[in-house]
Specification:
The protein has helices at 2-71, 89-93, 98-108, 127-136, 145-155, 164-178, 181-208, 214-231, 243-262, 268-274, 277-306, 316-326, and strands at 84-87, 111-116, 119-124. The chain starts with a helix and ends in a 7-residue tail after the last helix. With 333 residues, the protein is mainly α. It has twelve helices and three strands. Strands 1-2-3 form a three-stranded mixed beta sheet. 71% of the residues lie in helices and 5% in strands.
Length: 333
């Protein structure tokens, strides 16, 4: 009995020691796991903190770089130069009422500058300055690479974009064609016809008590008139009868708005490179516009081929195409 009791006692002691060992090992294991997880969390925390710190540092350096490119070498305070009334970034805050903003500035400063990275933008309503740029010394002033880069995606190499010989060639043909009586009479006829059509639509809405967007109607009427005079084609935006015409109108309207936004957006070229945001939409709209206009030009060329004997060409496109065949000028699309 003593031996049995002794063995039972020893067994219990062994079991207790084993349990204590297991418990101790479990506690140590748990502590190690907790320590490891805590260390991992700390590593993640430090990584996030480092990333945030470097992000703010990069942002700070970028802002410093932008400020340096804006203000460096701009002759600030020099009385020989027009006074500075802010930067181009001011225009972003007043974008929805930009014309009113510039009107208020012009009341106190007829000639002023807005600073931009690497350049100064000069704004003037002084008649003497306008005459100096557009008349007296026109050859010394160009549209500039900055403005050309902004609008070329939409306007190509037309007369509103190019400088130098290209501009002179197109100006020569345009000035002659716009002075012809045939084009003047045709333009008057088209604008009067579409104006009467606009009045008819407004009268209809008025009699029926309907709401309408006057600006939208005027844009449709103007686009119908300009397209008929320019391309000799009915766009029918006012009636809304042409699906292609409506799509073209919307694409042109959106593209114009995005190009306009480029003048106050310093990052538009990066967005274009990445093909994101409004620049991606502009790319789609320009493609639609190009396809539509190229189709009109192709059709017009075919019509001119069939009308070789007729010298009376009323629309501008036909007259330009005829001049290009003579070799007197090049047409830039």
């Amino acid at each position: 009995m003593l031996n049995l009791s002794y063995y039972i006692s020893q067994t219990k002691s062994t079991i207790i020691r084993t349990n204590c060992t297991i418990a101790t090992f479990s506690i140590i294991t748990i502590l190690l796991l907790l320590t490891t997880k805590t260390q991992e969390k700390m590593d993640v925390f430090y990584s996030m903190l480092t990333f945030i710190a470097f992000t703010f540092l990069a942002l700070f350096l970028f802002i410093c770089f932008i400020l340096m490119t804006i203000f460096k070498g701009k002759s600030i305070g020099d009385p020989k130069y027009a006074p500075i009334k802010g930067t181009v970034f001011n225009q972003i805050f007043y974008y929805k009422k930009l014309h009113d903003y510039h009107t208020q500035l012009a009341k106190t400063h007829p000639t002023m500058r807005l600073l931009a990275p690497y350049l100064s933008e000069l704004y003037t309503i002084d008649v003497r300055n306008i005459e100096h740029v557009l008349k007296t010394n026109f050859d010394k002033y160009s549209k500039g690479k900055h403005n050309q880069d902004v609008v070329t995606d939409l306007l190509g190499e037309g007369i509103f974009v190019v400088d130098g010989e290209k501009w002179k060639q197109q100006r020569k043909v345009a000035s002659y064609e716009f002075s012809t009586r045939v084009l003047r009479d045709f333009s008057c006829y088209v604008f009067r016809k579409n104006a009467a059509k606009l009045v008819k639509f407004i009268s209809k809405f008025s009699h029926e008590g309907l709401h309408f967007d006057m600006q939208d109607l005027q844009m449709r009427c103007a686009l119908d008139s300009i397209f008929k005079v320019g391309f000799g084609t009915e766009l029918n935006c006012l009636e809304g009868s042409s699906k292609e015409g409506i799509e073209f109108m919307k694409a042109l309207d959106e593209a114009n708005a995005i190009i306009y936004w480029r003048f106050v957006d310093p990052f538009w070229s990066l967005k274009r490179f990445l093909n994101i945001g409004g620049e991606a939409k502009l790319k789609r709209n320009v493609k639609l516009i190009d396809e539509f206009v190229n189709g009109v030009i192709k059709t017009k060329k075919e019509q001119l081929t069939l009308q070789k004997d007729s010298n009376v060409k009323e629309d501008i496109l036909s007259r330009f195409l005829m001049e290009s065949k003579k070799g007197e000028t090049n047409i830039y699309y």
